[in-house]
Structure prediction request, 123 residues.
Amino acid sequence: MRVFIADDEPDIVELYLEVLTLSGHEAVGTAYNGAEAAERILAMHPPPDLILMDHRMPVKTGLETAAQILAARPELRIIFISADRSVAQRARALGVLDFHNKPFTVDRLISILDQAAQAMGKS
Prediction:
């Protein structure tokens, strides 16, 4: 599965990159703020299979970013992984695939990726 990572924490991005590699998925891009994420994702051809997105990011929040991306490309799949549980319902209302809370274990992240891949027929 081709995955794009949007998170402002460099340590989290590095963890995602390692877990993607270990679990047989491919990281196809990263962004450290919402505006950068939307710009890069919307310019990608082919687009990523999945976007892992945080909510609390500079320039544009995850909700703003997801709204922009899904307005232009409603077929894209976004999973929020955020410590900001208060936005879970709004994220789902936008049409994101799922919402998971930080902190998380590596095993939990692998499970999230595997479930998403299976749901998309990419496993």
Remarks:
- The chain is about 45% helix and 20% strand.
- The first strand starts at residue 2 and ends at 6.
